[in-house]
Write a structure and sequence with these properties.
single chain; Arc Repressor Mutant, subunit A; D-Maltodextrin-Binding Protein, domain 2; 3 domains; two-stranded parallel sheet; 10 strands
Length: about 350
Amino acid sequence: MAGWSHFQRSRKSHPPALVTRCLVCLVAMAKRSVKERQEVDGIDAAPCYANLMLVRHLSYFVALARERHFARAAEVCHITQPTLSAAIRKLEEDLGVPLVVRGHRFTGLTAEGEKLLAWSRQILADYQSLIEDLSGARKGIVGELRLGVIPAAMPVVAFVTERFCKANPLATVTIRSITSRAIAESLDAFELDGGLTYLDNEPINHVQRVPLYRERYKLAVSRDHKFAARKAVRWLEAAGERLCLLSQDMQNRRIIDRLTSSIGLTVHPAIVSNSFLAVCAHLRHGGWASIVPHSFFHVFGQQPDLVAIDLVEPAHSEAVGLVISAREPRSPMASALLAATLEADIEGGLASL
């Protein structure tokens, strides 16, 4: 199989981007008719149809590494488990190395399998970018935008997606509410096209950053709370309230902890959650208070039974923005996301809060 042999030789001697281009050319060649390839390439083209299976087999392998279970991976890929197992064995035969630690069940990847996993993610990402680029040249981006968003930025995500969908009506958007650390990991694994997260606090490496707004902090209390009539509350006072806060796996909470520690305070919330919906529920019942981003009230609005009070001494803010992979060339989906983000005036939209 001349094309596959060329790809194997290229992966040993060329940088990843060049190898990926080699694979894309290989798939494109396989899509030609037999007659076209015989005329243009001067080779026996029929066996190269097997290369059409390469991208699919790599996607099966990535699914297996992610699910860590043959049956679940097969279900995700909409194939039978024997088909998945056969595809993995075919990859092992073609590459001449074991990829999966053999046992009664999936226990992990071999060292060679871990290397292939990194390559497979990049190859599949570039292949998808090719499809998006070719379709986008005719009718705008077609495909799925995968966007990771920290909970604190969820109230503003529609500023971006509304503009993205208007410019790319045939695309779909999948939004995942995840931590800033998970956004970094998912970008590295080519599982996200972009993320909305904090830019300066615990910054993510190897990404392009686009500032969108600065997050400010409010003490949220019920209308009958002792602070309800005040315009500002000191952090010292807020720290002593009966608090419901995000859990410490959320960067918003770590920012609050770092800020209060810097002025000699420690917060001891009675209730923690990884969901702002849970925080809101406790604000409405039981006399709880919470420290929330000012964007919180862009979604919940000026509720008749809730009050948002500025937190001062110190007055603090954190930069929030878009992060996309810094790799070049940028994928068409990431480029479309970037274009939509640059048009979003989130700071202006939150100015009244």
